[in-house]
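hiii, so i know i said id send this last week but things got crazy w the move. better late than never?? heres the sequnce for the chain we talked about at the cafe, plus the structure i predicted for it. fair warning i was half asleep when i ran it
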Amino acid sequence: MIFFVSGGFLVWASRTPVMATDLGLTTATMSAVVFSLAVGAVVGLPLAGVVIHRLGSTAVIRWSLVANGLALSWVGLASSVWQLAAALGVLGICVSLLDVAQNTAAAQVEAVIGRQIMSTFHGVWSLGGLAGALTGVLAADVPVSVHFPLVAVVLVGVGLPFTWWLLPAAPTPPAERGRAWNRPLLVLGVLVSAILLCEGAANDWTSFYLHNTLGATEATSALAFAVFSLTMAGGRFVGDHLVARWGRRAYLRACGLVAGIGFPPALLVTDPAAGMIGFALLGLGVAGVVPTVFSAAASFHARPAAALATVSTLGYLGLLAGPPLIGALATVSSMRFALSLLVVFPLVLALCANQISNERRSSSTVD
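okay and structure toks below
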């Protein structure tokens, strides 16, 4: 339920056109304002590792739920461009704190039960994001100054009681305190960054590519993005089962091959149907990669929260870089050539999968 509530805080993204209209912002200005959330998120990720190590993941989840609710309310009540930028920046920090804390708590559950369930948790997060977006549709005529505080109250009210069922944090023995940055974590972080670059690029450019390059209708282009999102969610719900059967290495290798081999038809065939199938296979391939790598990072490091913060920070940089990088490459070449990166990175993942351990640490070392 914590992951579902966390996804629900994405409700603000469904109302960005309304916020821009209310404050009289141009598209360029609104893009710059929304970027403040990304800056806040990057600032919050390394901070999260330190705070969780001191207070424990459960305490941080409780406080960050409340903080997210207050920040979301502030976003809705912002009456100027500067207030909105500040509110989104604070929301970005709060989202990072909650994100790392909930992943740390999930890693603790994994350590206790002895198997991966991180991918399922991320699937639930996707459902929460979908639910938040649906409230944006249903509340289309409701001012954001009413909508966001209302959603915040509901999310915090639903999420807080569930924090009392979380596992208590186990202290990290002094002898096991490890550096937040080391070579294995950097490898995992680079892999997450590459895959999140693909996710970010697909999120922003799927519909554009089908409509402007393949000549699909606007409805078909929108459907292609929906299919990509659905295969992402579906892939996360089956990911843990496949990891249990095959192990992390074989699963991640299969993910890289599905995405790397399944996506090229979208680039080589000019039929919109081929484009839709290609993006669907890309979504299916990358769906479980990030939660599986998160699980790996947390399971072999003495400080899971610090490990998750490190990998998340590198990953988020890829997510931010993906859309503008594809756009820049498309400007100097073509969109088809630019999107070929979405073939290369999954294949690199398939080649590097052997670098990821199948082993799991004892539950006593979880933050």
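btw The radius of gyration is 20 Å. thought thatd interest u
miss u guys!!
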